[in-house]
Design brief:
The chain is an alpha+beta fold. It is built from 14 helices and 10 strands.
Length: 380
């Protein structure tokens, strides 16, 4: 195969101006025009620098639109991401990015256009800052890949400010409310009793509970292994996934009541909590049953994930080592558990200081807002 002979780049006068002639990355002869000889040499130096960095010098017709490149980016990332995250990215691309900016040529997208997009999503569509920050993350990753591949010379995200991180108020159940919920759960058959015990006493994530199989329980050692989670994805139904993180994979000791309940319902090696066909129970069904339990118990409505926050809060307030709470919940650090899942209030502070009850309880302290487009699941 004959090798392409690269001709030396030249600068020469042309019709009262100056022309730069060079050979691009693919061996094609290309030209650009400048007003002065100095401008022409500056252009040449910039072109040669871009070629050395791997910039492809594509023609406008060869550069994809932002929508086309986002589809390509999603395809490239699919193997690296868990299905839930990939679904989330697909939703943002399909519902927000492609309809609003997808027709723009990749190398023509400006920082101002992206900043205007964020303002539109916040003000017109009512998105929370956490959701727009996710959009920012997607665009940042896509433009970073385009830059690495030589399709663009700079990322417009360098001139964009993402929305400030907003904190979200998290409410937790009181001790009395937790006891009331556990009491009403204990009046149910063994399987629903077990389901709510795992949430209200052990603080397991919804996906972790619904992903439990009988084989995960060891009745001899009285432990359960958290090896998987499940989630409901549009078009795919309930899918089995690895744990949320390496810290989420853990072994938890069980009390006698849980062992008694699992012994009463054990009927195979499949999922413990199932739909009629034996598949893992969908999160939406589980959520409806949770709301029914709240109504039956006469307890105020809080999301199911608040049970997990409540477990952490009351364990730490009760003097349990935060490191133990971290291991129970499957977090990466005790600091994260304390900062995100423990919500003391003024009464807790007063009791810690030995002060009589101030009589008024202000709302729980703030915790991280992880708002995002996502299919129903148990949370963090």
């Amino acid at each position: 195969m004959s090798q392409i002979t690269r001709r030396k780049a030249t600068v020469f006068p042309y019709r009262g101006k100056w022309r730069v002639q060079y050979v691009d990355t693919f061996g094609r002869q290309r030209t650009q025009t400048a007003e002065t000889r100095k401008d022409a040499y500056l252009q040449l130096a910039e072109i040669e620098g871009q070629v050395r960095k791997g910039f492809l010098n594509l023609t406008p017709e060869q550069i994809p639109s932002l929508g086309q490149y986002l589809d390509y980016w999603l395809q490239k990332r699919e193997q690296e991401l868990n299905p839930t995250t990939h679904w989330c990215y697909q939703s943002h691309v399909a519902n927000n990015l492609k309809p609003l900016m997808g027709n723009l040529r990749l190398d023509s997208v400006s920082a101002r256009q992206i900043q205007d997009l964020y303002s539109y999503l916040l003000e017109e569509r009512g998105f929370k800052s956490g959701t727009v920050r996710k959009v920012h993350s997607i665009l940042s990753s896509a433009f970073k890949l385009a830059l690495k591949q030589g399709l663009i010379t700079y990322s417009p995200l360098a001139g964009v400010s993402q929305p400030k991180f907003e904190q979200k108020q998290i409410e937790v159940f009181t001790k009395q409310e937790m006891e009331c919920l556990l009491r009403h759960a204990s009046q149910k058959p063994s399987k629903p009793h077990l389901r709510w015990l795992l949430a209200l006493r052990y603080g397991l994530r919804q996906g972790e509970v619904l992903g439990l199989k009988f084989g995960d329980f060891d009745l001899i050692s009285r432990t359960v292994k958290i090896n998987r989670t499940v989630n409901s994805l549009p078009g795919k139904g309930v899918v089995e996934l690895p744990p949320k993180s390496k810290h989420s994979q853990r072994t938890i000791p069980l009390d006698a009541k849980v062992i008694q309940l699992i012994s009463q319902i054990q009927d195979g090696s499949g999922f413990v909590f199932t739909a009629e066909d034996g598949s893992a129970l969908e999160a939406t069904v589980d959520q409806r049953r949770w709301r029914a339990l709240l109504v039956e118990s006469g307890v105020r409505h809080l999301p199911l994930h608040s049970a997990r926050h409540s477990v952490a809060t009351h364990l730490v307030n009760g003097g349990v080592n935060p490191r133990i709470v971290q291991l129970l919940l499957g977090h990466s650090s005790a600091a994260y558990t304390l900062a995100t899942y423990v919500h003391p209030n003024t009464l807790d502070i007063a009791h810690a200081l030995g002060i009589d009850s101030p009589g008024v309880e202000i709302p729980m302290l703030l915790a991280d807002n992880k708002s995002d487009i996502r299919p129903p699941k148990g949370g963090n």
